[in-house]
Structure formats: structure tokens, C-alpha cells
């Protein structure tokens, strides 16, 4: 079955990004000239996914507004002849993009947030995209697009991973590949997944990045998943059950990811994306030279 929907959990409080996230959603903080979440939605569109389900909170209305049409602003830009800016504005909400929002009333973990999307997703496979993680393209190839293709070929969940230093494994969900090493762009069956293991108990240093392609069966598993690490309902625990039922693949991304939920990860993403920006890259390199 074709993957056409992506669930973006955006209900979190963004405490790692205070004070910036006190009054605005952390997902609306800009990397160069776009909110982080816009990059994520563009990634979904590039993978052929046009239906976005936001699992949101009452304080996050700005995200829904960003992907809505602003008729007054469009009319004013058109009146002033600001055609380039008008196109930039329209590109945030292209005609083929459908955005739906559902509330997560209580913060009970990522697994619970995904389960909140069940009434909208229904009995279809779907992607999960953590909106504070940016995944760069590699030579024009979409990792998420490759993951959806592998899912459609095999029927198995695809979980994006990348290598991290062993001293950081306690911050991630970590997969067990029976000692195998994944090459970029390769998928392989997982034997186990563990949420935030201590270094001496980690089965590998292959950490889940923040992109998943999942079958609808995950909703039934989440419904029966008890609170785990941190007293929350963990998506990783439901995936561990899925491995036992029908298998799930780890997919190693081609390029790299940026954790924009942390301040240093956000700064790194800003540097990387500014150096590739079609209009600003040259001036930004000169600016960096002045400070280094």
C-alpha cells in the first residue's frame, strides 16, 4: 500500500530551547529564512507525501497558521507588485498540500502522540517525522522517499538510523543488527530496539534519527503499550513488539541529520543550511571569514 500521510508530533513544550520557545513554538524557530517545520514538510512533499497530520497543542496555533493561506498578505504583495515574495509566501502552502491537526490533550510521550493521529490516518501505512530533526538531501535523493519505497516493496516498517558516538547512545533509541554494519542507503532487519540504553548495555551505536515509515498495525500495539522510559508511552516499545510480530528494518540515511531541538544542533544546522543557500551562501562565507 502506498504511503501518502505523515504524522508530525508538535505538541511538545520545547524546554531544551528555552527561552526562545517560551512564547513561540520551537518548530517555528527559523533556520536561515524558513521555520524548521517548513523544511520537514518540504521533505515530505519531496518524498511524494502530501497529507500532513499535526499532533498539536493549544499553544501551537502558529504552526497551523503558517501552512494556511493568508489572503490579506497575498493581496497586499500582489498590489505592490512583489511577485517574488508572493511566490515565496504561496510556496509555504502549495495547492497539493493538505494539513490536518489533532490535539494531544496530555503529554504522555511520543507513542501517545502518534496514537492520537489514528482517527485521521485510519488503516493506512504512514510516515512519522519528528519536526525538530532536519535530514539533508544527498545528491538530490530523498531518504524518506527511499524508505517509503522499501516499505511498499517489503511491507516492513522502515526506521531511519545513523551512527552516533557510544557516549551518546543513552540519548537515543538504539537498534540491534546482530553485529552487522549498515551502509548508507541500506536497509536490514532489526533483531531488537532499546530506548535510551546505558552505554554498557547498548546493542550498537546505530541510533534512531527521527524518521519512520510504519504500518497501521502500530496503532494496535501502541494501544497496549504501557508507560516505559520516563513514565511515557514510547514509540520504540511498540516498534520492539512489531519486530516480534512481522519484522522491521533499520534504514541508514545517506547524508546526515541535525537535531534542531538542541541549541548547538540548531546552530550547526543554521551554518550548514546557510552555506548551501542559493542567495546567501557567498555572503555568509565572507561573514564567517570575518569571525574566524
List key phrases describing it.
11 helices, 14 strands, alpha/beta, Spore Coat Polysaccharide Biosynthesis Protein SpsA, Chain A, two-stranded antiparallel sheet, 292 residues, single chain
Task: Describe the model.
This protein is an alpha/beta fold. It has one domain: Spore Coat Polysaccharide Biosynthesis Protein SpsA, Chain A, CATH 3.90.550. The chain is built from 11 helices and 14 strands. A hairpin with a 2-residue loop joins β2 and β3 (34-35). α8 (217-223) packs across α9. The termini are far apart.
Number of strands: 14
Shape: globular
Unreliably modeled segments: none
CATH structural class: Alpha Beta
Rounded mean pLDDT score: 91
The biggest beta sheet is recorded as: 8 strands, mixed
Strand content: 15-25%
Q: Helix and strand succession?
A: EEEHEHHHEHHEEHEEEEEHHEEHH
Structural class: alpha/beta
**How many structural domains?**
1
Could you say what the CATH architecture is? Alpha-Beta Complex
CATH topology term: Spore Coat Polysaccharide Biosynthesis Protein SpsA, Chain A
Percent helix range: 25-40%
Give a brief description:
The protein has about 290 residues and is of the alpha/beta class. The chain is built from eleven helices and 14 strands.
Q: Which secondary structure elements does this structure contain, and how are they paired or packed?
A:
Layout: E1 5-9, E2 30-31, E3 34-35, H1 36-46, E4 51-56, H2 61-66, H3 71-79, H4 83-91, E5 98-103, H5 110-116, H6 118-121, E6 126-129, E7 133-135, H7 143-154, E8 157-163, E9 173-176, E10 187-189, E11 192-195, E12 206-214, H8 217-223, H9 235-246, E13 248-252, E14 257-259, H10 263-275, H11 281-291
Amino acid at each position: 500500500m502506498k504511503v501518502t500521510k505523515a504524522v508530525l508530533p508538535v505538541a511538545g513544550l520545547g524546554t531544551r530551547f528555552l527561552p526562545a520557545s517560551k512564547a513561540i513554538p520551537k518548530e517555528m524557530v527559523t533556520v536561515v529564512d524558513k521555520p524548521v517545520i517548513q523544511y520537514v514538510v518540504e521533505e515530505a512533499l519531496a518524498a511524494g507525501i502530501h497529507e500532513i497530520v499535526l499532533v498539536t497543542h493549544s499553544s501551537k496555533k502558529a504552526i497551523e497558521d503558517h501552512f494556511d493561506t493568508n489572503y490579506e498578505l497575498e493581496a497586499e504583495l500582489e498590489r505592490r507588485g512583489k511577485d517574488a515574495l508572493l511566490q515565496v509566501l504561496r510556496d509555504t502552502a502549495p495547492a497539493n498540500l493538505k494539513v490536518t491537526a489533532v490535539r494531544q490533550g496530555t503529554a504522555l510521550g511520543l507513542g501517545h502522540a502518534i496514537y492520537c493521529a489514528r482517527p485521521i490516518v485510519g488503516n493506512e501505512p504512514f510516515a512519522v517525522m519528528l519536526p525538530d530533526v532536519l535530514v539533508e538531501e544527498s545528491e538530490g535523493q530523498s531518504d524518506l522517499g527511499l524508505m517509503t519505497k522499501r516499505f511498499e516493496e517489503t511491507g516492513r516498517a522502515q526506521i531511519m538510523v545513523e551512527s552516533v558516538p557510544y557516549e551518546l547512545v543513552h540519548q537515543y533509541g538504539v537498534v540491534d543488527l546482530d553485529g552487522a554494519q549498515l551502509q548508507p542507503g541500506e536497509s536490514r532487519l532489526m533483531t531488537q530496539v532499546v530506548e535510551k540504553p546505558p552505554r554498557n548495555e547498548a546493542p550498537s551505536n546505530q541510533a534512531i534519527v527521527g524518521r519512520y515509515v510504519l504500518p497501521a498495525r502500530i496503532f494496535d500495539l501502541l494501544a497496549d503499550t504501557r508507560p516505559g522510559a520516563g513514565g511515557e508511552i514510547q514509540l520504540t516499545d511498540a516498534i520492539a513488539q512489531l519486530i516480534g510480530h512481522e519484522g522491521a528494518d533499520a534504514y541508514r540515511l545517506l547524508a546526515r541529520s541535525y537535531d534542531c531541538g538542541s541549541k548547538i544542533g540548531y546552530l550547526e544546522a543554521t551554518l550548514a543550511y546557510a552555506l548551501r543557500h542559493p542567495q546567501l551562501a557567498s555572503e555568509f562565507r565572507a561573514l564567517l571569514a570575518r569571525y574566524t
